[in-house]
UniProtKB/TrEMBL annotation:
Transmembrane segments: none annotated. This is NUDIX domain-containing protein. Pfam families: NUDIX. Residues 49-180 form the Nudix hydrolase domain. It comes from Halobacterium bonnevillei. PROSITE patterns: NUDIX, ZINC_FINGER_C2H2_1. Keywords: Hydrolase. Signal peptide: none annotated. Its cofactor is Mg(2+). GO terms for molecular function: hydrolase activity. The keyword Hydrolase applies.
Amino acid sequence: MGVQDSLSIDSVAVVPEYCYRCGAALGTHEFEGTELPWCPDCNTVFSRNPVPGVHVVVHDDDSALVLDEPIPQHEGVLSLPGGHARPDEAPKDAVVRELAEETALQADPADLRFVTVLHADLPEVAFYLLTYAVERSDVDGDITTEFEDGEAYFAPLDDLRANPQQIRDSDLDRIEQALEA
Ligand SMILES: [Zn+2]
C-alpha cells in the first residue's frame, strides 16, 4: 500500500509543528496540489481551516454597542461583543452567551438577525465571523463590563465614522450593514 492509500486528513486551526496524536515532528506531503504538514508516524496530513466565531451589533437608532477592552488582541481599538462558539453551541446561542459574559445584557436567540460573515484571514489563523444584529429594545439588563477597566457603550455611527482610527474598517462596515438591514 502506498502512502496515499492509507493517508488520513485532519483539520486544524493553526499550522502545527508536531502531530497532536503521536507527538511526532511533522514533515510535508503533497495533497490536492498543496504541500501540507504531514505526520510520518500516523500518515496524516493537516489542513488549516477557518475557525467560526460570532459577533453582534446591538443597535439603537443610529448607535451601536461597542466595547473598549484592555486586552492585547483588540490592539487599542473598539470591538463588537462576540467570541468563539463552543462545539455544542449553535451560532445564535454563542452570541447570547458572549453578549452576557461581556456586557451582562440578555438577548433572546429568536430576536437575532443574521447580517453577514466576515472572513478574517490572519497570518496564523483564519476566522469566519458570523455577524448578527439585535435591537436594544429586545435586550434586557444593565451594562456591566467583563473587565474592571473596560467600557461598553452605545456609540453613534457618525462618531465612529468621524474617528475611523478607533475602530477596524471591517467592524465599522458590519455596524453599517446592521443598521441598514
Ligand atoms: Zn501522527
